[in-house]
């Protein structure tokens, strides 16, 4: 039988996935109109950054299955949103968005993973480092809109 904390964690994950899925209607309109209109990509890019690193944290953490799965789902959804944004953005916004994605979602995430795995020794140090980075980025993610 599953523990109460695991069941509550599953409920929390379902709610979080609904939050990550909330822009689906917006992106459905973007696809139908083939235009991003006045939408901005920053919140999707920062959420992709945050969910990517929280997924990594969940994979590092023993017993981090719930953290890894919910943020893995969030990463997939945010990646789809960012790709759709780039597809339907005018050329100037497409280039700016792609640069920001390359810098933050590829470069920064990659740097954190490389530093964590190759420059830090001991699981507690790795978890603390990634946890602090994730906590700070989560604040930035929610402040981005």
UniProtKB/TrEMBL annotation:
UniProt key word Membrane: yes
Keywords in alphabetical order: Membrane, Repeat, Sugar transport, Transmembrane, Transmembrane helix, Transport
Membrane topology note: Multi-pass membrane protein
MF-aspect GO terms: sugar transmembrane transporter activity
Pfam families assigned: MtN3_slv
Predominant localisation class: membrane
Family (UniProt): Belongs to the SWEET sugar transporter family.
Protein name according to UniProt: Uncharacterized protein
Annotated organism of origin: Rubroshorea leprosula
């Amino acid at each position: 039988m599953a523990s109460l904390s695991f069941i509550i964690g599953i409920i929390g994950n379902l709610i979080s996935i609904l939050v990550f899925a909330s822009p689906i209607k917006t992106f459905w309109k973007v696809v139908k109109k083939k235009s991003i209109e006045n939408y901005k990509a920053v919140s999707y890019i920062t959420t992709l950054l945050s969910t990517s690193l929280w997924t990594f944290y969940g994979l590092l953490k023993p017993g981090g299955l719930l953290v890894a799965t919910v943020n893995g789902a969030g990463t997939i959804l945010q990646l789809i949103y960012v790709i759709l944004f780039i597809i339907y953005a005018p050329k100037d916004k497409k280039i700016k968005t792609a640069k920001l994605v390359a810098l933050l979602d590829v470069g920064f995430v990659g740097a954190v993973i490389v530093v964590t795995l190759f420059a830090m020794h001991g699981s507690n140090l790795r978890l603390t480092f990634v946890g602090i980075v994730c906590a700070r980025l989560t604040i930035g993610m929610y402040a981005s809109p």
